Amino acid sequence: MSAALDAHGANPLWVLELTPDATRLEVERQGQKLLAMLGVGLESASSYPTPFGDRPRTPDAVRQALAALRDPARRAEAEAWFDLPTPGAPAPQAPRWTDLRERLGWR
Amino acid sequence: MVMRVFTLSLVAALAWVYVGFLRRSFADAGPEKSGPGSALFTTLAAWTTLCLLGGFGGILATGTGVVTVVLGLGLVALAFMLLAPWPLATLVAIPNGWHRTAYALARLSTLRSHPDPVGVAMATAARALLRSPDGTREAAAWIEAHGKGRPLTPGTLLAHGLLASWRGDDALARRLLGIVERFDPRSHDDIVLRWSREWRAAEAAERGAWSEVVEATARLGPNTPATRWLEGVGRRYAGSRDAPDDEVLDARWRQVPQHRAVSDLHHACLGHHRNRPNEPKAPRPSHPLQRHVDALAHPSTTTLTAAVAAWTAVADDPAYAHRLGRAVADLSAVASEAGLPMPPLPPTLQGHSHTDTDDAVLRPLELAGQQLTERLMAPTPIDPLSALYDWMALDALLDDVRRRGSPGALRLAFRPAYGPLTTLSVTLFNDLGEPLLSNALTRWLLDLAREVGDARCVEHQTRNLAASSTSS
């Protein structure tokens, strides 16, 4: 794996297994939950999925992810690169309902 | 004979009372200051009068003379029309594209159009114009003319937005309808919010912008069945963790009045994978990102060339513009790491760094802010509608900074936009008699100050908001 891909793998949203629509409260709750799980050595918290395969999760990585998501600029960066796909996967497009306003009586 | 004269006199008296209600209603120059209780009283009184008129019409219609029967039937028809102007506006005038009739019927509706009677009537007429097969610029001007000389309200803003859409400017319509949400909730008529949210959701769905559909529909408050259904659809396509299951989505779809017309779209959505709760969302692949990640995972001349080509293809797409800086850096790094030559970058990607992009997005914003300041300082007072469009232009430029600028660019863009718009907000309130628009702009400024984390500006706008909310 290249260093650039490795750097993308540490996306704080992936580390905390959150989506870009997570609120500040959800971020804090998830971070504290994962730290508690890692503290008691739970196996399920020891790794997180990324499009490039599972990566180990450490308490330090969780703390760094929390700090990153508290900073609006770093959070924006994490959100921008959140939807990286799995290498080699097909590329479906979001559907466009091009005549919806007409169907709903707006035209 | 005496009985007939008595009946006709009674009918004339009742008609006179009803005309009094109408005169009172139509004389209102702006948003009503009276509470909902007053509107309910006026409506009940008007309905009682109309029921009596209709009853007399019915009695006359059972008479023997032709004139009496015709008069009676006419009275019954008139009473029926005046009793239910709103259903007639939405079920008859709008679908047929009769903008003048839609306006008149919406103005006759005493209960529906509280507290923004002219605005709701303008929006109803604008919606009818959207359905008109032969709408003209004169028709649009006729609708806009009803708002002249009145303070801008959520209803008039919705009307201006729908008219912008009718002219083909959906981007402006989107911005105007987005501002409707920022007005003081007490100045809203429910129908304005319902229509505004449904239009925004449907327009975003047409562009495939499903996260915008969720943003437009997920607010509390009045919503249409179509909005509630689109919220579920949007959550599914956006891959949200709390997307509704098939049963809930199906129930929402059945409540949409036009559910048969959107049946195929609904069933396509039902077939779409829904992320299970607590499961991290699967990353959504898209073309340049796919080529990018392929190049990073398996660097070769072929994958690097494909990635550069994919980024070049979307270099002008705002959805990808803010990723270009890091994309180019990633590909250069991986090429260097793998000992491969970096494919030649086309001019659109060359020198693509955050600094260049920041310069490109900040310069127009600074210029627009400066021009607004000069216009506010000029001796000629600024026109409220023109002020609204200035605000919309700065809003669009700030969005450009959010999309294309570096993560810190918004902080640099904050002052050039915040200063002139704060002055505009004060001018709207103090000098232009636009308390509602000023209040909406203050809410927008408060959100912007919160977004960049400027505590002093947050405090300033909070004070302004409290002052304008009390006075408006």
Structure description:
- The complex is a heterodimer of chains A (107) and B (472).
- Chain A is mainly alpha-helical and 107 residues long.
- Chain A has a domain at 15-82.
- Helix content of chain A is 49%, strand content 4%.
- Chain A has a two-stranded antiparallel ribbon.
- The termini of chain A are far apart.
- The model of chain A has no long low-confidence stretch (mean pLDDT 86).
- Chain B is mostly helical and 472 residues long.
- Chain B has four domains: 2-27 and 35-83; 95-270; 287-338, no CATH class; 360-471.
- Helix content of chain B is 72%, strand content 0%.
- Chain B has 23 helices and no strands.
- Chain B has helices at residues 2-27, 36-61, 66-83, 85-96, 99-108, 117-131, 137-145, 154-166, 170-180, 190-207, 210-217, 225-237, 246-255, 263-270, 287-297, 301-313, 318-321, 324-338, 354-377, 384-404, 409-430, 435-452, 455-471.
- The longest helix of chain B has 26 residues, at 2-27.
- The N and C termini of chain B lie far apart (56 Å).
- Classes of the chains: A mainly alpha (107), B mainly alpha (472).
- Chains A and B meet through helix 1, helix 5 and helix 6 of A and helix 6, helix 10, helix 11, helix 15 and helix 18 of B.
- Report the sheet with the most strands of chain A, covering strand number, pairing sense and barrel closure: 2 strands, antiparallel
Mean pLDDT of chain B: 82
Biggest interface found: A-B, 47 and 62 residues
Secondary-structure-derived class of chain A: mainly alpha
Radius of gyration of chain A: 18 Å
Span of the ends, CA to CA of chain A: 52 Å
**Widest β-sheet, arrangement of strands of chain A:** 1-2
Order of helices and strands of chain B: HHHHHHHHHHHHHHHHHHHHHHH
Which regions of chain B are unreliable across 5 or more consecutive residues at pLDDT < 50? Answer: 29-36, 275-286
Helical percent range of chain B?
Answer: over 70%
Shape of chain B: elongated
Number-wise, the strands of chain A total 2
Query: Proportion of β residues of chain A?
Result: under 5%
The termini of chain B sit apart by 56 Å
Poorly predicted runs of chain A: none
The topology string of helices and strands of chain A comes to HHHEEHHH
Q: Helix- and strand-based class of chain B?
A: mainly alpha
> What is the overall number of helices of chain B?
23
Tell me the radius of gyration of chain B.
28 Å
**Main sheet properties of chain B:** none
- Strand percent estimate of chain B: under 5%
